[in-house]
Amino acid sequence: MQTRLSIVATPIGNLEDITLRALRILKEADVVACEDTRETRKLMSHYDIHVPLVSFHSNSGRAGFDKILKLLEEGKSVALVSDAGTPGVSDPGLELVSVVRAQLPDIKIETIPGASSLTAALAVAGLRVPSFMFYGFLPQKKGRETLFKEIASQERASIFLESPHRIMKALESLNKAMPERRIGLFRELTKLYEEHLIGTPPELLAMLEADTNHQRGEFVVIVEGE
């Protein structure tokens, strides 16, 4: 296989949500670079793929980039995956591609598209989203409230990702900034307990307070446009 860096989308929950091309690329790669080897090994074992795994994540630092660059310089084909979804969306894959383009301009970089929590949520939202701003994961502290004010002032829809530990605080901020705007909460997408909740911030706060099960899992939050 020609030396290349393949950016491979993996399932966001249900292991059946992977393309035939992605499976072929993973099998053909010399090395699979992943955020968490334990998570990726589950996927690889499920499809009986036996390719060496190397760790590459947000805390890898310069050594992590150097490791991938060295593999490519040696003529290895590297498949990059995240724990779930498409690498480069709210993970260090974006920076890796930039570094490879700058330092190894002759290396082929290819995208292997597939599952994305962003498009999965949009498909079932039923909200007005003719155009949108995607924020990824919001900052935990600095600048967080400023972003909520920005979202409130947007005419286009806004989409961001949120953890179960901060979803209530996010809803409280949305309630303060735009109490009458419709919001969609999409959690555990493609998994057994997938759930879609649509309502205004006060309505959603009441739902999640009444049943804390609604607070579990990773969330895609869609704020409807004006």
How would you describe what is shown here?
The chain is α/β, with parallel strands linked by helices and 226 residues long. The chain contains 8 helices and 10 strands. It has helices at residues 20-28, 37-46, 61-73, 93-103, 117-125, 144-153, 167-177, 201-210; strands at residues 4-8, 31-34, 53-55, 78-80, 108-112, 132-137, 157-162, 183-187, 195-199, 219-223. The chain has a 5-stranded parallel beta sheet with strand order 3-2-4-1-5, sandwiched between helices. Strands 6-7-10-8-9 form a 5-stranded mixed beta sheet, with helices on both faces. Helix 2 links the parallel strand 2 and strand 3 (53-55). Helix 7 packs antiparallel against helix 8. It is elongated and about 55 Å long.
List low-confidence stretches. none
In what order do the strands lie side by side in the largest sheet? 3-2-4-1-5
List SSEs in N-to-C order. Answer: EHEHEHEHEHEHEHEEHE
- From the alpha carbons, calculate the radius of gyration and give it in angstroms: 19 Å
* Alpha carbon gap, first and last residue: 50 Å
Number of strands: 10
Binned strand content: 15-25%
Largest sheet: 5 strands, parallel
Total of DSSP H or I helical runs spanning 4+ residues: 8
Kindly state the percentage of residues in helix.
Answer: 25-40%
Any idea what the CATH superfamily of the largest domain is called? Answer: Tetrapyrrole methylase, N-terminal domain
Class from helix and strand fractions: alpha/beta
CATH topology of the largest domain: Cobalt-precorrin-4 Transmethylase, domain 1
Mean pLDDT: 93
Count of folded domains: 2
- The CATH architecture category of the largest domain equals 3-Layer(aba) Sandwich
- So what's the CATH class of the largest domain? Alpha Beta
Shape: elongated
